[in-house]
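User: ok so my PI wants both of these folded by tonight, can you help

Assistant: No problem, let's get them done. Here's the first:
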Amino acid sequence: MTTPWTEDHMPDQTGRVAIVTGSNSGIGWEAARVLATKGATVIMACRSLANANTAADQIKALKPSGKVVVMKLDLGDLESVHAFAAAFRQGYDRLDLLINNAGVAKPPYGKTAQGFEQQFGINHLGHFALTGLMLDMLDATPGARIVTVSSLSHRSGVIRFDDLNWERNYHPARAYAQSKLANLLFTYELQRRLVAAGQSTLAVASHPGWSATNALRHSSMMRSLNPFFAQSPKMGVLPTLYAATAPGVRGGDYYGPTSLELRGYPKKVVSSASSHDEAVARRLWTVSEELTQVKYTLM
């Protein structure tokens, strides 16, 4: 990209429908704001309806040409994921964008409703299930894209198939890295399966670099360095928005910030070799279907 890409470069989104998970703050809120400003109907899929309604009111106050709609989605509870999918189908007949943005970063040990370690359960399994339940609507919508938000932390990630839920020796940062590596393994494997099935939907990934968001609330050291190194959520969202809407994006692309992938305007970046391990990706896919009981109809 010769000219820095900003939200002003986003094509008109009128008539399109987008789901943005975790859109009550940070990167997700910025994504919802820009998409609504560009004319899209944006589903703010959030765990807390109170927080989401407050966030939606802030966007509505900007008088966007599109709509913002709040819907309940708790990615830490697969029953909630199924309920969200069913409710969405009752109100909409198309889905142009699914932005898998929500996540938790480096918290004390905790489990989801179904007993998964919460970072693996929310960041990966919840989005894996949601994407699977929405895939037929995406496939039926021309030009649809799935954008899953990963992190630079994926580079230190290892998929611990012998202890995915960190029952032994829990380490918050390593568990987070595992979940973010899982996001990329999922994206690349999904794209391979979409191509094999002859589908036009694109699976793409992004990361926000070092952005000052609530995702860092469990890391006092990182928060203390924010004034010196972090960029704003308004900048951090640009790789995600580029992946979601820019012309020329291809399935399996990965976008991040320009400067050392920490800050700056979006560009195509390269993920770790481990994120491209197809054998690990296939195994993770099989395990994810078993754990979520969501079976994809693709090859």
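One down. Here's the second:
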Amino acid sequence: MSDAISRGETKSTGGTTIRPEEAAHFGRLARDWWDAKGPMASLHQVNPVRLQFIRDAIDMHWASDIEAAAPLRGKSALDIGCGAGLLCEPLARLGGDVTGVDASTENVGVASAHAESSGLDIRYMAGELASLQLGQFDLVTCLEVIEHVSDKAAFLRDVAASLKPDGLLVMSTPNRTAASKLLLVEAAERVGYVPRGTHDWDDFVTPDELAGLLADAGLAMGEPRGIAWRPGKSLHLSSDMSLNYIVTARFA
């Protein structure tokens, strides 16, 4: 890939990375998104694990007081692929000026209504990230999204264009392994833990592949952490990345 550009000079592609069928799939789930026992239960279960990683990354990146209730106060945050706002709302409670973007208008509608009912001021927008021209943010999050886009390299260039030169990016995605194919796709969808049609294993990205894609967008990837499960401990951060992993990135 030869589109790498220097720090602070990342350009949006202006192209289309949304797959309409993916947006429609998640849009059909919008009204049940906040039901912790519904079809999106898996996201409710993994959210505290992801938030633990994000909070630690925020404290490290900005040398925050680990006891501070609002480490994002005075900072802007963008959640790409925000769904119905499961991450946006905690980021707002951490003090961030939060914007959520999603491909599905149905998700954005549910997210907006839920934030309002919770007394949170969050801006939600639907559409292609590049076309929205939102500017740059201190924190950009993009969790379980890259495996659903049509052009991963172009998408990450758009993500990089949304990040301030000294900003922090956090991403998570399933790993492409034999274990993830068996457990995240075949078993999870068969038993209803994940809605059918959610994942295409061939679209999963390995940590090495993600590091290369991020480098081509001018970003340096940090050390990835696995999100693993085991009896008695449930979902947790781990060195085991066979199913899913979460990682930070910054401008190189």
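Residues 33 and 40 are 6 Å apart (CA to CA). The chain is about 35% helix and 20% strand. Good luck tonight!
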